[in-house]
Structures are given as structure tokens and as C-alpha cells.
Amino acid sequence: MYIIEPYTKIQASRMGLTVKPSHDKYKKIDVFKDGHKIASVGDTQYKDYTKYLKEDKALAEERRKLYHQRHTYNTLRERLARKLLW
User: Fold this and answer.
1) Which residues neighbour 15 within 8 Å (Cβ) at sequence distance 6 or greater?
2) Where are the beta strands (DSSP E) in the chain?
3) What's residue 74's pLDDT?
């Protein structure tokens, strides 16, 4: 099961959302607004900013930059992953 880092919880609260570990074994977190689930985001096969940050801050910043270059704001799930995990 994915452990939600404080960074993600802070980002979620700034957006008026709550996050919980996902019940979907392929996703990291379930995102809720006003108690209703709006999305499951983050593939469990890949690291995110918070995980890279534990290894090396410079590496985390580089991986974040590359993630932002690869991903756009096309879907709600992508926007949420970018804001909450990166």
C-alpha cells in the first residue's frame, strides 16, 4: 500500500481536497472532494516527487522538471497527479 507523504496532504488541503490510499492496487491515492471520490491517481509502478526527494533533492527536482515536460493538463486525473504528486 502507498504511504501518503505530508507534501501530498498539504497540496490536497490547499486545493480543498482530501486524499486516502487507493483501493485500486494499481493507483497510489484516491482523491475526494466534499466526501465524494473524484479520481484515483498515480501509478504504483513509478516513483513520484516525494519518493525522489527522499533520495536526493537535485534528482527530485530534475525528475519533476522532466515529468512536467512530458505531461500536460489534458485530464482531471493528470491535473491532480501533477498537483498532488509532483
Assistant:
1) 83, 84
2) 18-21, 27-33, 36-43
3) 83
